[in-house]
Amino acid sequence: MSVLAANKEIPLLQVKNLKKFFPVTNSLGRVTGQVKAVNNVSFEINAGETYGLVGESGCGKSTTGRTVMRLLEPTSGEGIYQGKDLYSLKGKELHSMRKDLQMVFQDPYSSLNPRKRIGHILEETLKIHRIGDKKERMERVMDMLHRVGFQSEQYYRYPHEFSGGQRQRIGLARALMVNPKLIICDEPVSALDVSIQSQVLNLLEEIQDEFHLAYLFISHDLSVVRHISDRIGVMYLGQLVEEALTDELYANPLHPYTKALLSAVPVPNPAVKRERITLRGEVPSPLNPPSGCVFHTRCPHATEICKREVPVKKLVTTDHAVACHLF
Ligand code: SF4
Fold this sequence. Notes:
single chain, Rossmann fold, 31% helix
């Protein structure tokens, strides 16, 4: 169970000890190892909340999102969505769960059929879930297009006729068509110009209030995650090393990896001096992660115990948990 509970309500989603390993095979097809992309990750998300998952590329945050969505099956662990075990759902129950949990990708272009008009792409989601007749579906698509800032005539346009920011709004509209409760946003603004990023982030916030949505917001960009998240989990090499309310994490980072990440974020106030922490070495391979604390090969505070024992995630305050032998 996550040490840092979303709050006293029953969470919308609970992820417990989630593992996703990918087997590595040799030329004879024999399994020679496992890439430990996600290793024992636990967290919770409440209805209407944004949980930011942050870390460098390759730390396992996108794999976590895809495994929660069941685009990938977990190696082990639990996902409890509204009291139901996500990983044992089949048939109709799985189909219905897919309506509640939607995903927005970094590159919406690759997930939009280039031969279909935007209106038809949005309508398809309703057809899959057998919602409405033809007339009702068209009305719902038009409403949604207007809601995300498009004109009626754009119903008939093709994906290539839109800019990157507009395509991301289409991706969001498609996710919203079935009234989801949780949207997993996987680097949704990383490919956009900074000016367009803020438009998409503002839209995400507006529709969150309107639809009472929860987000699992995955990003490597700490400024973006800070802007949108209520709580944040920091991932390193497949593990969640720190979790806190957003303001608490930025004001008082505890894990040496979080401190290093935050030290690299530019501070808008020139009067505030922040010491830049440069980490030594490269991120180790998830095929052969270090023993004990996975961060010990790069940590400036590592001691003997760090090489031997995996630190357990502990609550430091009611809103702040960290996995480090220093605490
Ligand atoms: Fe550094 Fe040890 Fe803490 Fe890991 S457990 S972050 S190596 S001090």
